[in-house]
Amino acid sequence: MMNMESIHHVSLTVRDLDRAKAFYEQVLGFKEIERPPFDFAGAWYAVGTGGQQLHLIVHSGETFRQGGIDTRDGHFAVRVGSFKAAQAWLDRQGVSYEARPHAKAGFPQIYVLDPDHNVIEINAERYDGE
Q: Which end of the chain has fewer beta carbons closer than 10 Å to its terminal beta carbon, N or C?
């Protein structure tokens, strides 16, 4: 058996790199990191402090979702320190989301879509709302 240490990165396809970068930088607060000089457009981001990364890849193929938030669809999750603060931030940014403060998962969850309809889960260890 392999000894897994952590998830290194998640890759998502996007259609419009500038639009995607604005979302991941301005809404989610990810910091762009250096990316090798591939022969296709994209961007890499540091996620948190544990070395995990998000890789955006420009793609014009048929790999994109069309619908709204489907929490059973492929997604990645980031952990935040405060559910309430994350929800307030998304409200200030005008981002639509599905909040599950008392989720069956055992921790509060917020689901959002990026501009290309990739599903992102934002969760916290505990619910700190009212």
A: N
Question: Dihedral angle at the C-alpha atoms of 36, 40, 41, 47, nearest 10 degrees?
Answer: -50
Please choose, from the candidates 38, 59, 56, the residue with its C-alpha nearest in 3D space to the C-alpha of residue 114: 56
Strand partners, 31: 46
Question: Between β-strands 42-47 and 52-58, what pairing exists: parallel, antiparallel or unpaired?
Answer: antiparallel
- 82 three-state secondary structure: coil
Fold category of 9-124 in CATH: 2,3-Dihydroxybiphenyl 1,2-Dioxygenase; domain 1 (3.10.180)
- pLDDT (tens digit, 9 = 90+) per residue, 14-54? 999 999 999 999 999 999 999 999 999 999 999 988 899 99
Q: What is the mean pLDDT of residues 64-71?
A: 82
Three-state DSSP at 93 gives helix
Nearest CA among 48, 37, 40 for reference residue 10:
48
| Phi, then psi, of 57 in degrees rounded to 5 | -125, 125
∠ CA 56-5-3 to the nearest 5 degrees? 125
